[in-house]
Amino acid sequence: MTATVRQLTELPLDDALVEEARALGLDVAGAAEAGIVRAVKAEKERRWKIENAEAIQAANDYVAKHGLPFAKYRQF
């Protein structure tokens, strides 16, 4: 099992929000990390779509012109 290297980071957060999260028993650091994970994933997906827009459009154009390959074998 690979150990994850952790970096101590200071983040400016709204005091009231942090207090509310703590009052609810939430792990503030864990929630912040989970949010950053989601943001990184979303940004990677956004960039991938931009970088591959031409190929995606070409595939869509092919299907629009010729239909789905092997469509006659689909059972749904």
What does this structure look like?
The chain is an all-alpha fold and 76 residues long. The chain has one domain (15-68). It has helices at 15-23, 28-51, 53-66. The radius of gyration is 22 Å and the shape is elongated. The two termini are 43 Å apart. The mean pLDDT is 94.
Question: What is this entry, summarized?
Answer:
This protein has three helices and no strands. By secondary structure, the protein is mostly helical.
Task: Note the main attributes of this structure.
mainly alpha, 62% helix, elongated
How many structural domains does the protein architecture include?
A: 1
Report the sheet-strand fraction: under 5%
Mean pLDDT: 94
Structure annotation, total helices:
3
User: Termini separation (Å)?
Assistant: 43 Å
The helix/strand class is mainly alpha
Tell me how many strands there are. 0
Topology, pairings included?
Blueprint: H1 15-23, H2 28-51, H3 53-66
